[in-house]
Design brief:
alpha/beta; 169 residues; single chain
């Protein structure tokens, strides 16, 4: 059971987490429990847009690992460790399945809060970030940082400053 948040809150989600944050905001509103003061979505295509990439969640391990290499963020030593990958691949496949099969319910109104889309300037999703604008009922902004899909690893301080500037400024 969802409970009303104790005070103002914001949401940040990266990749699949962006869709999770979007869904949490909508479900809270649908239950009359308010919503975030701001939603930050990072490295994610908008929820209404079908992916332009082929789904890999049910493909052979090699294709999933290739996607992980493309994203960056997973150390090569992990990608090359068979035992570690036996533990990691089921989790990655589950995340990919959730992201690749997500379908936004029809007829949703924009969120009542501002939405800021963040992304790495070298990520494939960067061209899709503008599509989040139609889900922002109280303003939209877009900011890119150096890097690829996992830009947040190298730009964590800059991302935190960006969020703090909005929340505290």
């Amino acid at each position: 059971m969802l409970a009303a948040p104790a005070g103002p809150f914001a949401l940040f989600g990266h990749s699949l987490g962006a869709l999770v944050g979007f869904e949490v905001a909508h479900r809270l509103r649908a239950r009359g429990l308010g919503g975030p003061v701001h939603l930050w979505v990072s490295a994610s295509s908008p929820p209404h847009a079908p992916s332009r990439r082929p789904a890999v969640h049910a493909r052979p391990d090699g294709e999933v690992v290739a996607r992980m290499r493309e994203w960056g963020g997973t150390p090569r030593t992990v990608l090359e460790d068979r035992e570690m990958m036996e533990l990691v691949l089921p989790v990655v496949r589950a995340d990919l399945a959730a992201a690749e099969t997500y379908a936004m319910p029809a007829g949703r109104a924009p969120l009542a809060c501002p939405v800021t889309a963040l992304g790495g300037d070298g990520d494939r999703t960067v061209d899709d970030l503008e599509g989040w604008r139609c889900h922002a009922g109280a303003g939209f902004s877009l900011r890119t940082f150096p890097g690829g899909h996992m830009y947040v690893s190298g730009e964590a301080a800059a991302v935190c400053r960006e969020i703090a500037a909005h929340l505290c400024g």
